[in-house]
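Q: I'm writing a short methods note and want an example of a predicted protein-small molecule complex. Could you take the sequence and the SMILES for S-adenosylmethionine and return the bound structure as tokens? Please keep the output block clean; save any remarks for afterwards.
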Amino acid sequence: MMVSERPMTPLEPNTQLKYPSLVKETHDALSALLFPNLPGCAGRTELMARLLGTGISEAMHVLNGLHAAIGDAGDVCEFGVAQGATSALLANEIRATGKHLWLYDSFSGLPKPSPKDQLKDDIFGLGSIDKYEGEMRCDAMEVQMRLAAIGFPAERCHLRAGLVHESLQEGTGPAEVCFAYVDFDFYEPIAHALAYLDRHLSPHGRIVVDDYDFFSTGAKTAVDEFVQHHPGRYELSMPQTFAGKFCLLRRKSVNLMGT
Ligand SMILES: C[S@@+](CC[C@H](N)C(=O)[O-])C[C@H]1O[C@@H](n2cnc3c(N)ncnc32)[C@H](O)[C@@H]1O
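A: Understood, no commentary inside the block.
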């Protein structure tokens, strides 16, 4: 979530479009300089110009992680989708594969923060972390409209509304995941998603967690605890400073010891 970009209210039409030629120029420059293995994809830069809470550089890292893992079996997830602008970007990239897209959001905004969520960056200027409960509320219909607009097959999209502790459970979630974008902001939902992913991530699976060391302290704490609890299983790396506040997790190998 970028500081200046408070999400629109559910009834506000999405008329925002970042300067499209600048987005394309940035995309092409980052592709050439940082992501030479990233394949092209029709419609990508148009969808990047419609992103709301995800910057262009972060989106490029997300796409790079997705394509690094796309050869593995497994589906793609976004945890915390809001209006679905990033969901549409992901959907467009996997349209030609048989992969399914799993989308999780309360659609009632941020939950009550836990004690592990301390306010680090007051992104909306509310004064305390408790005041963020209910913020970022969006309408699931907007997500469906964005996916329909790009023709993503409805039977390959699983939109799960509700608090993730209830909506993401064994037996009803994706059996295998090759890539996940985790963007819940707070400690408990991020920890829950990461624990699920650890049981279902493919051998070369990748995860991007947004807002690492930004906004609430909970995202960084959840990631750091996750990596510490699975020694040797994940490589944690940070992007270039200009790219934004998020982190990259790469599964290193299957750990037969089950630690
Ligand atoms: C920063 S927004 C996601 C932005 C989106 N990924 C994008 O790129 O446009 C965070 C979202 O997480 C959702 N969320 C936070 N905690 C949740 C929880 N415990 N269960 C379900 N959804 C949650 C909020 O409703 C909100 O829409």
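A: Remarks, as requested: The CA atoms of residues 236 and 249 lie 5 Å apart. Residues 20-33 form the longest helix (14 residues).
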